[in-house]
């Protein structure tokens, strides 16, 4: 599984390089709203840290003393139930652990950072996968963790050098993630200003138009179902998730084939500029999410879980994507939808009555869309760079943590 390692490395296991391996309590502690300590599980281990959320339960000092574990600056925490392998360094957080969190106290003379990265390699993850028990909720036992095979460099200096190199790669990844988040926030701010008329671009003036969706286009539902019948014609579906996860819809992204009666396939066809919305969801905030068909897709039709708006007016194509993303429109969708708490929906009648404000000048629409498109392109370029950095780091881990490549 580990493969060939250098002659001066040794193959050992976690049990031999830890002073203790254990997990949290297998019972429910006595919670206290005023307690200063937190009860955490594996789902609190996020991005190398113990993450406390609003839903994290509190316990008092007596409960903490009763259930505390021997955690220190040599401790690595890992999720072992449900989600397997989330990691965090223990940093003296005031916590007690639940059963889905394990702790590994790394022995002195071994770099805990080296072991931390080793646990992210494909061969360790494969070992964990093979050791899982449980049919519905998977569990990784403490015995399996202790037997985890570990290729270990001969000196702690080499271990630290490897860990530092990978830490530098992580730092670059973190900086890119922070930059992407910053650029997304800037774009959101620009959208709220440019798409509401609060900020006008140079050379444009005059009032924007406000109309109901039913006035600017035809809104239709009753799309194609997900069944296939031999007497019908084959079509590719624009599904709910296609609309939910995308801003733009292209032919090469649609691959769900079904069939429909010829008349329905024609009525539910997908043409360039069609705007699709999510009319229902389990939560209000997922109502009214939209995506735009960027080309005619002759063999496609929209799903019965989707609503289509086909404009009477000639709008800039990219502008159609952005204008329905503004907060005012989405807030309106959340307000007018109906539901019981388990399912929310906007009827076609209510869709037609929703308002949208927009510049009637297609030149202004194009100018706004160009600015937002440029921001999207910058974010996309950063995301590709981030993906490349993550791939490079994975390659470095496989090389450095098995000794295939040695650092001077």
Please supply descriptive tags for the structure shown above.
408 residues, Helix Hairpins, single chain, Adenine-n6-DNA-methyltransferase TaqI, Chain A, domain 2, elongated, five-stranded mixed beta sheet, 3 domains, four-stranded antiparallel beta sheet, alpha+beta
What does this structure look like?
The chain has a five-stranded mixed β-sheet. A four-stranded antiparallel β-sheet has the order 2-10-7-8. A four-stranded mixed β-sheet has the order 16-14-21-17. It folds into three domains: 10-152, Alpha-Beta Complex (Adenine-n6-DNA-methyltransferase TaqI, Chain A, domain 2); 155-205 and 359-408, Helix Hairpins (Orthogonal Bundle); 209-357, Adenine-n6-DNA-methyltransferase TaqI, Chain A, domain 2 (Alpha-Beta Complex), CATH 3.90.220. The protein has helices spanning 61-67, 112-118, 122-131, 142-146, 156-194, 213-216, 240-245, 262-267, 317-323, 327-336, 348-353, 362-400, and strands spanning 10-13, 18-23, 37-40, 45-46, 49-50, 57-59, 75-81, 83-89, 95-97, 101-106, 149-152, 209-212, 217-220, 233-238, 248-249, 257-260, 269-270, 275-277, 280-281, 290-293, 297-302, 307-311, 338-339, 344-345, 355-358. It has twelve helices and 25 strands. β4 (45-46) and β5 form a beta hairpin. The chain has 408 residues and is of the alpha+beta class.
């Amino acid at each position: 599984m580990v493969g060939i390692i250098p002659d001066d490395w040794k193959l050992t296991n976690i049990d031999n390089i830890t002073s203790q391996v254990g997990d949290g309590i297998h019972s429910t502690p006595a919670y206290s709203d005023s307690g200063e300590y937190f009860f955490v599980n594996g789902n609190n281990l996020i991005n190398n840290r113990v993450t406390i959320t609003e839903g994290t339960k509190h316990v008092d000092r007596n409960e903490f003393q009763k259930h505390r574990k021997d955690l220190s600056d040599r401790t690595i925490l890992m999720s072992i139930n449900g989600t397997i392998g989330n990691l965090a360094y223990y940093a003296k957080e005031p916590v007690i652990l639940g059963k889905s969190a394990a702790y590994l106290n790394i022995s002195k003379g071994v770099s805990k950072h080296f072991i931390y990265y080793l646990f992210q390699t494909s061969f360790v993850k494969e070992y964990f996968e093979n050791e899982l028990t449980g049919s519905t909720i998977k569990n990784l036992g403490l015995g399996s963790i202790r037997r985890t095979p570990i290729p270990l460099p001969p000196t702690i200096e080499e271990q630290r050098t490897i860990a530092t190199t990978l830490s530098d790669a992580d730092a670059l990844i973190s900086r890119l993630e922070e930059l992407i988040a910053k650029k997304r926030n800037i774009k959101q701010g620009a959208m709220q200003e440019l798409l509401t008329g609060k900020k006008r671009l140079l050379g444009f003036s005059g009032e924007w138009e406000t109309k109901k969706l039913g006035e600017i286009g035809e809104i239709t539902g009753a799309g194609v179902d997900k069944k296939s019948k031999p007497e019908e014609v084959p079509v590719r579906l624009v599904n709910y998730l296609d609309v939910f996860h995308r801003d733009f819809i292209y032919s090469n992204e649609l691959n769900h084939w079904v069939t429909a009666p010829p008349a329905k396939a024609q009525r539910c066809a997908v043409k360039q500029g069609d705007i699709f919305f999510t009319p229902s969801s389990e939560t209000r905030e997922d109502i009214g999410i939209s995506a735009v068909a960027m080309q005619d897709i002759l063999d496609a039709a929209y799903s019965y879980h989707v609503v289509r708006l086909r404009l009477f007016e000639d709008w800039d194509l990219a502008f159609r994507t952005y204008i329905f993303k503004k907060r005012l429109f989405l807030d309106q969708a959340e307000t007018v939808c109906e539901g019981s708490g388990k399912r929310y929906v906007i009827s076609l009648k209510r869709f037609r009555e929703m308002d949208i404000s927009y510049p009637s000048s297609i030149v202004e629409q194009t100018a706004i869309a160009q600015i937002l498109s440029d921001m999207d392109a910058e974010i996309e370029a950063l995301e590709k760079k981030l993906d490349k950095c993550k791939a490079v780091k994975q390659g470095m881990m496989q090389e450095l943590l098995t000794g295939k490549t040695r650092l001077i």
